[in-house]
Amino acid sequence: MTIETSVGEPIATIRLNRPEALNALSFALLKDLSDALDEVAASKARALVITGAGEKAFSAGADIRELMNRDLVAEREGALFGQATFAKLDRLRIPSIAVLHGYAFGAGLELAMACTFRIATAKAKVGLPEIKLGLIPGYGGTQRLPRLVGQARALDIVMSGRTIGAEEAERIGLVNAIVEGDDPKALGAQFAERYTGFSLCASAFARDAVRRAFDVDLSEGLRIEADLSTLAYRTSDAVEGMQAFVDKRPPNFKDA
User: Which is an annotated GO molecular function term of this record (predicted)?
Assistant: First the structure.
């Protein structure tokens, strides 16, 4: 299998498992990843950690040999399939964390950018080098990168194809934190713990509100926030959370 999946509670894990190819995202791997994300969505996990097998790469990108000698229809279908697979991360009720412990190039970085958070070890190297092949990113890179780092930085990264080190990636907001350690799964789980103790209802509302801020103007965004905030008040978890505060005890959330 090109994917290893564990859906234990509270943290699910997905490991890209093609270390001999630097975890390149073949179409077979994308299909396995799509299925794995469906499995996680149906589980009781409260966070998802995505890592890559081996010491060299999270994922070095798409499998270039598979991209060659295709007709126009196949090329577009391939791009749409990759985008649809990564979009499943947007629809997850739980936060997802990509652990970048080596190379994360092209489609590998696009996968990481589709996650809620990205953490990196000091040796991580990231970039969108498609321009060097006469191509542009096709799995969401041109859309998610400017939302993370701004238009000017995104244009520089996409149009130069340059490699970015961990420190710069953190400075410009491409990764959330630089972490120390040799076990990507453990690093991801440690980072994820800060998000697993709350109501999944409130967490999902919060993610939805923040994401939609980039798609609408301020007045519409404020309306969305008011609507989602009102929905949050109507949950049993909100009743429990406020009562627990008054009672000076830890809340017992039921995700309802």
Answer: hydro-lyase activity
Assess whether 180 carries a catalytic annotation: no
Q: Mark whether 130 is an active-site residue.
A: yes
Q: HSE-up of 37 (CA within 13 Å, CB side)?
A: 24
The CA-atom distances, in angstroms, between 27 and each of 33, 66, 67, 75, 80 are: 10, 8, 10, 12, 12
Q: Which of 9, 39, 55, 130 is catalytic?
A: 130
Q: What is the rounded CA–CA span in Å between residue 197 and residue 252?
A: 10
For residue 6, what are the β-bridge partners? 13
Cis peptide upstream of residue 19 (ω within 30 degrees of 0): no
Q: Are strands 3-6 and 47-52 parallel, antiparallel or unpaired?
A: unpaired
Cα–Cα distance measured from residue 139 to residue 136, given in angstroms and rounded to the nearest whole number: 10
Q: CA 45, 49, 52: angle at the middle one, nearest 5?
A: 140
pLDDT at 68: 86
Choose, from 110, 180, 193, 240, the residue flagged as catalytic. 110
At 77, the amino acid letter reads: E
Q: What is the pTM of this model?
A: 0.93
Cα(109)–Cα(113) distance, integer angstroms: 6
Burial class (CB in 10 A: 0-12, 13-18, 19+), 231: middle
Tens-digit pLDDT profile for residues 32-71: 999 999 999 999 999 999 999 999 999 999 888 888 888 8
Number of helices (H) and strands (E) in the chain: give both, helices first: 11, 10
| Residue 212: burial class (beta carbons within 10 Å; 0-12, 13-18, 19+) | middle
First-residue to last-residue Cα distance in the chain: 35
pLDDT of residue 214: 86
